[in-house]
TrEMBL record:
InterPro entries: Diguanylate_Cyclase (IPR050469), GAF (IPR003018), GAF-like_dom_sf (IPR029016), GGDEF_dom (IPR000160), Nucleotide_cyclase (IPR029787), PAS (IPR000014), PAS-assoc_C (IPR000700), PAS-like_dom_sf (IPR035965). This is diguanylate cyclase. Residues 179-230 form the PAC domain. GO terms for cellular component: plasma membrane. It comes from Halomonas beimenensis. Residues 107-177 form the PAS domain. Residues 428-559 form the GGDEF domain. Its EC number is 2.7.7.65.
Amino acid sequence: MGQPAWWKEVLTLSRSAYLHISPEQRIIDAVGDTQTLLGRDPESLVGVVIGELKDIRTRLGSAVAECFANSEIRPGETWGFEDGAGCYYGLADGSFVIKLTAGQHVNQGIIGRLADQLPVKVAYVDREGCFRFNNQAYVDFVGISQEALYGQPVSTVLDAASYEKVWPRFQRAFAGEAVTYEDKLSLADGRTFYFKVSYLPDYLEGEVVGFYAIIQDISEYRAMIQLLRDIHTGVNRTDISANEIVDRLLRDALAYLSLDIGLVSRVIGDQYIVKWSASEIADISPDDRFDLGDTYCRLMLDVEDVFHTSQAGADERINGHPCYQQFGLESYIGTPLHLNGEVWGTLNFSSPHPRHQPFTQVEIELVRLIADAVERVITDQAEIDQVRQELDRMADKASRDYLTGLPNRSYLDQHVEELIQAHDTRDEPFSLAVVDIDHFKQVNDTHGHDTGDTVLQWLGARISESLRDGDLVARTGGEEFVIVMRRAHAPEARKVVERVREHIKSEAVMLEDGHELPITFSSGLSEHTKGEPFSRLFKRADKALYAAKHAGRDRVKTV
């Protein structure tokens, strides 16, 4: 049902507006006095990307929603921030609502109070490149108080190279442009992060007097994406051994989790047998054995799921365990490994140092993902190789002509496109000849289609054995073949095709009744011209073939 009249009246009287925004940051719906607040009617806002609006409150809402999308909030959970300058509500379906009101003038004081509640870093920079405001999240991140930052140039918190990167972007913001970018920047204290940054110009009487900077640390997100890529690449590599694949998976995970020891173990009865290990601090090697009950993995297998602790000494489940008493491992996260529905062993990561923060849901899910990858690697390597060989055979079959075994049109298209690229960029010429069997219809009509198939197979084999190394012949349909000659200008290519023609003419197909069937062909030849597409090259060669047929067959014509 539509909105009640009283609701529309209240929105008008209160000079308020609501924007409903999708997880993809596009406005789904807009109601209220958007004309006063944003200078646009509600209908014209639908479909607009929120980042295109220049109101600082909408940009803050966008950053907050993105921050929560990458945080611990799970699907179905909601969140909210409220202040006189704006209110933000995260809905259960992942969309969010921004409430704007004109009841208070949006000045730095109001924005400051709002920004201090938000999990994203916010700063205000004046035209001299100096800080005039930093919210609490920014202060906590750089470790410098608001009082100490006030009036200081931005160069005091960035190293020289990073400040040199951002200063041109400052100039764009001072010129009135809303600037958004992602970049790797280093702080003056040596720490390096990936940031997503938006600069929103601030106007006073039509002049830009500074800009708001909304800053998100996306380092964890970038590291996670890289780890996912490494996992995907690692388990699909065929040029390294299973040992190398697992070692890389362990080391990539250690780097992401900031831990020191990575192990894959085989569990047999009460024995914990190390199969793979990765560590710069622990002297643990494959085939080392421990009593399962003396490892944290015993606790993990008891719960049959990911088990973790970030401060074992303060964890009542663990601080009395033999593993803690003997090795003093403060941080641990591990999960069972299953093969054929049974527990095969464990994957675990640990460190003698406590973590500053508990393991996040993202980290827990990544450990599960790495376990899946390890399970795949250690599952019957011979079976994996067999599957890969079968896939290779299927791919090869898909690119071959079923009758002659020669490359088909699909393979030819790909091959010629590569040669065109080589010619256009590296000046490597090539030529192409279209070959057509003379009077092939008569062969089929007189001797039958089985004999016709035999002729096609015979001709394909004879052409192949007559070509130079690196040349290719493909069957493209019916009695038509295409010969591709690499690094050959037309005169040299013509010699190749003439040699093939003479070779075919000198022999004959032996029929089942003992009779011989002589075969000839006609051919049209063209040399590739730089910038010419395959279709045009083929058309020229086909035109030359028609000329060869018209001139009496059993000959080669060049165009």
